[in-house]
Amino acid sequence: MSSYIEPHQYTLRRPVSCCGIGLHTGKPVTMSLKPASVNSGIRFFRSDLHADKAVPAHMDKVVDTTLATTIGDGEARISTTEHLLAALRASGIDNVHIDIDAHEVPIMDGSAGPFVHLLQRGGRKRQRALRRILRITRPISVTDGEKSIRIEPYNGFKVTGRICFGDNVISEQTYSVDVTPERFSREIARARTFGFVEQVEQLWRNGLALGGNLNNVIAIHWDGRSILNEEGLRFDDEFVRHKVLDLIGDMALLGTPVLGHVIADRSGHSLHLDLMQSIVDNPQCWEYVKFHKRGKIIQRRTVEGSRTRPQQLPLFFPQNLQGGVRPSACPA
Ligand SMILES: [Zn+2]
């Protein structure tokens, strides 16, 4: 079963770092990930600005969702957070201190694969503190024209994505995955970002995607029938897998692991944020699962409004979280 619903919090065992370029600036960036204290969450520090000022990876800090998800506090901005956050969430890292000396997370090869390897080099360290998990109890939906996103009760974290383009390379693709560290690493992490050649040329004219090249973007030919990357695709449906990757990364901005099934149809960063805001705005559609340790017993309490239902679990977490769900629709 997925490690992200283990009751304990995790951080890195040792610091790790990587270098790369920003997708939009094309400028070099160095990023270091370090172990962090319990309950501190995922926090960025702009080492080239105010090195001691934290920018938490939280939806409240999102300042832009155009092309990528950007968080910020004043002039301290960090862009293209989604691939790194997807790797952190899927790898079950709760607390990490991230020093970064530019305003973009390095694009690496356009996927989350290099970040998964980085986190594997750092190792996971179990912490004494216990997690809090947001569990969806009733469906919540958000639509924007033909785009839609929905989250339903589910005994795990599952993502289903669908994309639909009018070309012959992508066309229509659907992908569904129970997000575990193993499946993320094997099926999702290596899926790269993509763009149509004419879009990339337009971005270049506007001074964006300056770091974009065939080593970090799948470029779809103007005729919509082929890609420019000579090595080909990593998966036949690499495009929708990358969209699922982006969604996992954006959902990390809720700040806690989630138990629910996200179903996204042609969604993007902006709609992902709308879904998270709708979750926050509809507390009758979810509850927190909290854990408390009593000797060798870990006790789970489901906090639902003012009611608390204590349950006892063994120290080692069972195969799944038992408990009924109410499939009635929320007015969201
Ligand atoms: Zn992406």
Average pLDDT reading: 88
Strand content: 35-45%
Bound molecules: zinc ion
Total domain count: 2
Order of helices and strands: EEEEEEEEHEHEEEEEEHEHEHEHEEE
The CATH superfamily of the largest domain is identified as lpxc deacetylase, domain 2
Overall helicity: 10-25%
Radius of gyration: 20 Å
Quickly count the helices: 6
Helix/strand/pairing category: alpha+beta
Low-confidence stretches: 305-332
Outline, from the CA principal axes? globular
The name of the CATH architecture of the largest domain is 2-Layer Sandwich
Largest sheet: 9 strands, mixed
Number of strands: 21
Distance between the termini: 31 Å
Task: Walk me through what this model shows.
The chain is an alpha+beta fold. The chain folds into 2 domains: 3-131, Ribosomal Protein S5, domain 2, CATH 3.30.230.20; 134-284, lpxc deacetylase, domain 2 (lpxc deacetylase, domain 1, 2-Layer Sandwich). Helix content is 19%, strand content 36%. The protein has helices at residues 82-90, 113-122, 181-188, 197-205, 238-251, 269-281, and strands at 8-12, 16-21, 28-35, 42-46, 54-56, 62-64, 70-73, 76-78, 96-100, 124-130, 132-136, 140-144, 147-152, 157-164, 172-178, 194-196, 218-220, 258-265, 286-294, 297-304, 307-313. Strands 11, 12, 13, 14, 15, 18, 19, 20 and 21 form a 9-stranded mixed beta sheet that branches. A 5-stranded mixed beta sheet has the order 2-3-9-4-5, covered by helices on one side. Strands 6-7-8 form a 3-stranded antiparallel beta sheet, with no helix packed on it. A hairpin with a 5-residue loop joins β6 and β7. Zinc ion binds next to α1 and α5.
